[in-house]
Write a structure and sequence with these properties.
Radius of gyration: 17 Å
CATH superfamily: NAD(P)-binding Rossmann-like Domain
Strand order of the largest sheet: 3-2-1-4-5-6-9
CATH topology: Rossmann fold
Bound molecules: nicotinamide-adenine-dinucleotide
Structural class: alpha/beta
CATH class: Alpha Beta
Number of domains: 1
Strand content: 15-25%
CATH architecture: 3-Layer(aba) Sandwich
């Protein structure tokens, strides 16, 4: 039995990295996939790969920092597939390394708008749909930077801590309405998000990890599937850490 057979799974940032790997893994588990991502991104290849796995899928344009786009993406999903079973709020951006004392306000606003306020918008309108239909599952993408300071990545660290706070509130407010919310906290994952990092920084991340390698998007996708399906039915308001031993 597949773990997400005919479940409608909505994934923000589903066109790249962790989101794409999770979309493909959910498709292998029998889900109907909604890839929600920025409109200007090439998504045909992602939809082609998902369709090749024998499931239905759709692309919806979204900018998670724009509340009207978020509402529209969720309405479009429900209009097309009748319901929303699992939401993976995964879209996010990296930041620039800076001291707090010289952090440009614009950089703070940009990071918080996408990585924290964007998560809130998605969660809010997903919950409204879950309450209408009698339940659902939310998985929020945080980071190891949600649990400890990532030196110099100030608004990123703050946003990811906030995502865990939001996730805990889902559990305490909606657990008795058949709604669960959990988060994933990876250390560095080999995705296009890391492309801008210089070679020596990349090497330092690997050296700083007891497992001496970074996480893969497929490993995060496996954690997503666990939190999305009934295997994790008593898991609520918490997080899976994927860090190769860093926190130990
Ligand atoms: N790669 C890592 O090392 C790492 C580690 C921990 C957590 N994360 C988190 O994982 C998530 C996915 O990152 P990734 O590594 O797959 O990166 P990625 O750059 O490969 O993918 C991010 C996706 O989000 C989309 N996106 C960006 N801004 C958006 C917006 N405003 N609205 C909608 N979509 C938007 C992008 O178009 C892209 O498809 C992010 O939240 C990131 O913070 C990544």
């Amino acid at each position: 039995m597949k773990k997400l057979e005919n479940k409608v799974v909505f994934i923000t940032g589903g066109n790249s990295g962790i989101g794409k790997a999770s979309a493909l893994e959910a498709a292998r588990e029998g889900a109907i996939i909604v890839v929600a991502d920025l409109e200007n991104k090439e998504h045909d290849e992602t939809l082609r790969e998902i369709t090749a796995l024998g499931v239905q899928c759709m692309f919806v344009p979204i900018d998670v920092s724009d509340v009207e786009r978020v509402k529209k993406a969720i309405v479009t999903t429900v209009e097309k597939f009748g319901r929303l079973d699992v939401a993976f709020n995964n879209a996010g951006i990296g930041g620039v390394y800076s001291g707090i004392h010289d952090m440009p306000e614009k950089e703070w606003d940009r990071l918080i708008a996408v990585n924290l306020t964007g998560q809130f918008y998605c969660v809010k309108y997903e919950l409204q749909q879950f309450l209408k239909q009698g339940g659902g599952v939310i998985v929020n993408m945080a980071s190891l930077a949600g649990l400890k300071a990532e030196h110099g990545l100030v608004p990123y660290t703050v946003a990811k801590h906030g995502v865990l706070g939001l996730t805990k509130n889902i559990a305490v407010q909606y657990a008795n309405q058949n709604i669960r919310g959990n988060a994933i906290c990876p250390y560095y994952v080999e995705t296009p998000l890391l492309n801008a990092a210089p070679e020596e920084v990349h090497t330092a991340w690997i050296e700083g990890t007891p497992s001496k390698r970074l996480c893969t998007a497929d490993e995060v996708a496996k954690a997503f599937i666990y939190l999305a399906c009934d295997d994790s039915s008593y898991c609520n308001g918490t997080q899976i850490i994927l860090d190769g031993g860093v926190m130990a």
